[in-house]
Amino acid sequence: MSIYLDNAATTYPKPQTVIESMANFMTNIGATSGRGAYEKALQSDMLVYQVRKRIATLFNFNDPKKVIFSLNATESLNIAIKGILKKGDHVITSSIEHNAVWRCLKTLERDIGITISVVPFKEIGEICRKYNIPFLVDAAQTAGVFPIDVKESNISLLAFTGHKGLLGPMGIGGLVINWEGDLNPLKSGGTGGDSAYEYQPDYYPNRLETGTLNVPGIIGLGEGIKYIQEIGEDKIHSKEKLLLRYAFNQLQKIKDIIIYGPKDSEKIIGVISFNLKGKSCEGVAYELDQQFGIMIRAGLHCAPSAHEIIGTKKVGTCRIGIGYFNEKEDIEFLVEALKKVNKLSEGNC
């Protein structure tokens, strides 16, 4: 028996339709998008465009050509941040950013001379709208789980990844560009069109998409989104909130457990961080995996600034990521396993 509770890293399992759609493309079409006028290449083009439209619909956006595909949210964030910022610019960012944002900003601070302010975020979209400031949102953990409306929330650029809440494969993500400002390409190269022109095209999506697209990944992502739309984001979010409430209730029954952050399912998305007193988070995760077949995350989770705030930067935490395919029984098994781990010889915290 195995239980997967690391959905904040990547969701597992994937819907069968995601797997089948990718296999079908590779078996029956297999042609590159944007690189040919023969039938299979045109089929590939149409499939990619259909996914752009599906993504635009998901985020209430009306311009599919400004849905840009990338490797993941990290690349999308780099495209946005490095494509906009120049020497002397000032950035306001939150105090709990993932390294995908923080390292990118710190590198630009060092290399080109931007300045950074770190603040707790609240109603930031309204502030950006008032002062006409581009607003970049990292939706790696929320896309597919929590309804996102780029218009209502005044989001200028939305970075997302396919392999988490959108239920798609690894290696595919994207950037929604709801902004008319200039965005310089992160990379330059072949786009399949305007090949005699010596510079990167100035129109979307070709301006920011260089090289051969990951068409199987795009198709898998499209099927993941289709699965979400058929179920409904509200239903997915409601189930995950139910499981979170149950997990908080059950975990607090464990002796010497420390739970970090709000213990309120209305204030978090699918993630609970905790430690057992006197035990290292790595040791706890190892025992859960080896003795009980339970997979969780341990460490700093690529977000050292968040751990700085909660006081765990030196020791890290255990983290469970609850997904739509988890059930109450998974939580119950985890709690019983943690009670047993608690009785094992103490580690070094």
Structural overview:
The strands form four sheets. This protein has a four-stranded mixed β-sheet, with helices on both faces. Strands 8-9-12-11 form a four-stranded antiparallel β-sheet, with helices on one face. It has a two-stranded parallel ribbon with strand order 1-10. It is 39% helix and 14% strand. The chain has 349 residues and is α/β, with parallel strands linked by helices. The protein is built from ten helices and twelve strands. The chain has two domains: 16-231, Aspartate Aminotransferase, domain 2, CATH 3.40.640; 233-343, Aspartate Aminotransferase, domain 1 (Alpha-Beta Complex), CATH 3.90.1150.10.
Short key terms for the protein model shown above:
349 residues, four-stranded antiparallel sheet, 2 domains, Aspartate Aminotransferase, domain 1, Aspartate Aminotransferase, domain 2, alpha/beta, 39% helix, four-stranded mixed sheet, single chain
Topology of this structure?
Blueprint: E1 3-4, H1 16-28, H2 39-58, E2 67-70, H3 73-84, E3 90-94, H4 99-111, E4 115-119, H5 124-131, E5 136-138, E6 157-161, E7 173-177, H6 215-231, H7 233-251, E8 257-260, E9 271-276, H8 281-292, E10 294-295, E11 297-299, H9 304-310, E12 317-321, H10 328-343
Parallel strand pairs: 1-10, 3-4, 5-6
Antiparallel strand pairs: 2-7, 6-7, 8-9, 9-12, 11-12
| CATH homologous superfamily heading of the largest domain | Type I PLP-dependent aspartate aminotransferase-like (Major domain)
Please give the CATH architecture of the largest domain. 3-Layer(aba) Sandwich
* Low-pLDDT windows of residues: none
Structural class call reads: alpha/beta
Mean pLDDT: 94
The CA-CA distance between the termini, in Å, is 29 Å
Q: What's the Cα radius of gyration?
A: 22 Å
Largest sheet: 4 strands, mixed
Shape: globular
Order of helix and strand elements from N to C terminus: EHHEHEHEHEEEHHEEHEEHEH
